[in-house]
């Protein structure tokens, strides 16, 4: 491993960051707490991104079931296709 150059000022940013850490009493903690509670939680923000997706998915699935069970299939049209058909 290469040797690090000596710092002329004697200031080590790694030691400074380790010593700083998190403050024991953050004055902004209460002001920032609302961002992560109630309607602003990660899950609530995601649910609000697609407001009608759940209802639309259920409606589409219901339509597909209805189509399979009650609508006649349109794939039985081969009897009209013969040699005389142009």
Automatic annotation (TrEMBL):
GO BP term, pick one: mitochondrial respiratory chain complex I assembly
InterPro entries cross-referenced by the UniProt entry: NDUFB3
Domain of life: Eukaryota
Record membrane topology: Single-pass membrane protein
One Gene Ontology term, aspect cellular component: mitochondrial inner membrane
Chain segments annotated as transmembrane: 48-66
Localization of this protein: Mitochondrion inner membrane
Keyword DNA-binding: no
Disordered: annotated span: 1-23
Pfam families named in the record: NDUF_B12
Keywords noted in UniProt: Electron transport, Membrane, Mitochondrion, Mitochondrion inner membrane, Respiratory chain, Transmembrane, Transmembrane helix, Transport
Family from the record: Belongs to the complex I NDUFB3 subunit family.
Functional summary from the UniProt entry: Accessory subunit of the mitochondrial membrane respiratory chain NADH dehydrogenase (Complex I), that is believed not to be involved in catalysis. Complex I functions in the transfer of electrons from NADH to the respiratory chain. The immediate electron acceptor for the enzyme is believed to be ubiquinone.
The protein, known as: Uncharacterized protein
Species of provenance: Recurvomyces mirabilis
């Amino acid at each position: 491993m290469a040797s690090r150059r000596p710092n002329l000022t004697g200031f080590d940013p790694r030691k400074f960051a380790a010593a700083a850490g998190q403050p024991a009493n953050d004055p902004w903690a209460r002001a920032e707490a609302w961002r992560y509670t109630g309607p602003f939680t990660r899950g609530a923000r995601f649910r609000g991104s697609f407001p009608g997706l759940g209802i639309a998915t259920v409606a589409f699935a219901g339509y597909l079931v209805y189509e399979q069970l009650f609508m006649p299939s349109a794939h039985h049209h081969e009897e009209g296709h013969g040699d005389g058909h142009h």
